[in-house]
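Input chain follows. Return structure tokens only.
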Amino acid sequence: MVDMNLITRCKEGDMSAFEELYETCSTKALRTIFSIVNRYDLAQDILQETFYECFRDINKLRTPEAFKGWFYKILVRNSWRMLYNEKKFSHKQLEAYERSIKDPHDYFEDIGSNDLINAINRLSLPMRTTVILYYYNDLPIKEIARIMGCFQGTVKSRLFNSRKVLAKELKKQPSEFSGREYI
């Protein structure tokens, strides 16, 4: 959790406070972005863009208490936009580039098992983003709805449907998840 004093100092233009904010939030933000886009190189670009926008627009933040939701709204918007723009590249170019980088799962072993990560990656982008914000970032449904620009019922529906899909996918896997009851 970010200290509200730190946000206030950032709003006042304290550069050391912004560096501290980056150090505090960057790791979890990068993991969140990677979970959404599933490409480490793209996640790094999105992280830079997100912190740039945060630095540029932090004076527009009304109260320090609203920082977390405001920050994740920027993060999700940038993730979706850049992911959409990446789809414009040819698949051959993208495959060649992805083979040239290290396995990004190595950087994020503490998120969960590979089976779970792979199952989450097979969800649609809105469902995957909802699951990540709810379970990994511990954001309440009301906040997720505000971040994603949808109704709370839509968030609840996405979570419910995601749990059903994930349960079905994980039951197929011969791993630690097979044979368990999920819903």
